[in-house]
């Protein structure tokens, strides 16, 4: 029965035999050889591991040489692909000098100095970007990847580590040592890409991830669009937009390239957004500064006609959530309606009674057909409450599904919406003012 000591000896001998097999075909530096056996042993760098294997190999070669199992020519072949200490062994045995070939994978370019040089350049870039977290990515030339694969397949890839992975880890560790900035594998401020060519010259690119802020906005004025609205001749159709207001208010605080907003739907340009406000995610693109006080943001974003309340940090999933759910969230609208003929309290009670859990068919409104596909939607009006203002004016609170076109619910849109207020009242009705009072939370 094999003892544990014999088993360990067998594994160690297997490592040395595998190393000899590899080095008889490919020249490798200590680090690139160590990566082939990266999963063998702990608390060793790949460079230390490769050096140890080469030392053990030199010992075995000397033993086999003195036992006349191998000759000096074989040692010379291994030495040219191994370097020290096998080159010293060859010189001792033969009295002749032999020089090591460049590493098949990294050309002897990847060293602690090489990694340190890259890390220092990365540290400068992170400092310039005021980053508080980062992650390193490495892009290797395909020729380098193929060379590495040629070597690693000789071992079955069971114990090896890729050069790309080692560079990411070692550069990242060194950057943290230099800057005290921790890596963040989930939501880094900055993604650093080190692009390495076949000669191991490199370039560094940075991708500054945006800041995402969860917020709610209120629109207290009318004729304010959601995003900038331009006419065909390039002039602005409306003087202000929600996105303009947010960008102009806070972009300089973050030293940001731009600001983009993602909202749970949008109200008409002439409608106010009151009550509970509308959920929003603010995307701060390429910020040069990331730590802005929340209270300061909310103070700046409170204006006469627009108010934005920032709640805290958001994620990409939050953006997906508010966009996916915008048509599903129920809403409450307040609309002021003018009728062509006077309507009685009885007419208004009939209207209120009719629109209880009532399904409404709507084709795409005429006013937006130029930018949206013509199709039929079925939405539900859950209930309405009506208050008379005068014989021809009343206010209606409409509790309905998200995505219902409220103006068309009032005037029928030439029969494209049915049923509608005009149809039930028996007289043309026109929406004068529209406010959104409530948007259901996710």
From TrEMBL:
It catalyses: uridine(55) in tRNA = pseudouridine(55) in tRNA; uridine(54) in tRNA = pseudouridine(54) in tRNA. GO terms for molecular function: tRNA binding; tRNA pseudouridine(55) synthase activity. Substrate binds at residues 333, 405. The active site is at 268 (nucleophile). Pfam families: Pus10_C, Pus10_THUMP_arc. HAMAP family: Pus10_arch (MF_01893). Belongs to the pseudouridine synthase Pus10 family. This is tRNA pseudouridine synthase Pus10. The gene is pus10.
């Amino acid at each position: 029965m094999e003892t544990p000591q014999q088993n360990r000896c067998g594994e160690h001998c297997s490592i040395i035999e595998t190393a000899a097999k590899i080095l008889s075909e490919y020249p490798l530096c200590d680090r690139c050889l160590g990566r082939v056996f990266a999963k063998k042993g702990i608390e060793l760098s790949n460079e230390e591991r490769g050096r140890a294997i080469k030392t053990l190999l030199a010992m075995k070669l000397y033993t086999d040489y003195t036992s006349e199992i191998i000759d000096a020519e074989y040692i010379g072949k291994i030495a040219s692909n191994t370097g020290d200490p096998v080159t010293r062994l060859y010189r001792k045995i033969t009295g002749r000098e032999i020089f090591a070939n460049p590493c098949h994978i990294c050309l002897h370019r990847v060293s602690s100095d090489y990694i340190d040089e890259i890390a220092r350049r990365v540290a400068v870039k992170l400092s310039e970007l005021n980053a508080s977290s980062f992650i390193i990515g490495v892009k290797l030339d395909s020729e380098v990847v193929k060379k590495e694969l040629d070597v690693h397949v000789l071992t079955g890839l069971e114990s090896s580590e890729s050069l790309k992975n080692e560079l990411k880890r070692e550069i990242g560790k060194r950057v943290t040592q230099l800057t005290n900035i921790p890596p963040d594998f989930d939501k880094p401020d900055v993604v650093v890409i080190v692009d390495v060519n076949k000669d191991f010259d490199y370039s560094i690119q940075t991708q500054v991830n945006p800041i995402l802020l969860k917020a709610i906005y209120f629109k207290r004025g009318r004729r304010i669009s959601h995003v900038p609205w331009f006419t065909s001749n390039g002039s602005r159709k409306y003087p202000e937009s929600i996105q303009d207001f947010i960008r102009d208010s806070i972009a300089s605080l973050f030293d940001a390239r731009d600001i983009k907003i993602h909202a749970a739907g949008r109200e008409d340009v002439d409608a106010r957004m009151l009550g509970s406000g509308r959920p929003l995610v603010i995307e701060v693109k390429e910020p040069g500064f990331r730590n802005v006080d929340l209270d300061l943001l909310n103070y700046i974003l409170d204006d006469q006609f627009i108010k934005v309340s920032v709640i805290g940090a958001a994620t990409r999933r939050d953006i997906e959530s508010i966009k996916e759910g915008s048509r599903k969230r129920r809403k409450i609208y307040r609309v002021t309606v003018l009728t062509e003929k006077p309507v009685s309290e009885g007419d208004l009670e009939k209207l209120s009674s009719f629109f209880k859990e009532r399904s409404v068919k709507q084709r795409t409104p005429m006013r937006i057909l130029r930018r949206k596909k013509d199709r039929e939607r079925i939405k539900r009006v859950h209930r309405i409450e009506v208050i008379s203002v005068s014989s021809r004016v009343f206010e209606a609170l409409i509790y309905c599904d998200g995505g219902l076109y409220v103006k068309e619910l009032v005037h029928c849109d030439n029969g494209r919406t049915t049923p509608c207020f005009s149809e039930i009242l028996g007289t043309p009705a026109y929406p004068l003012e529209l406010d959104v009072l409530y948007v259901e939370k996710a």
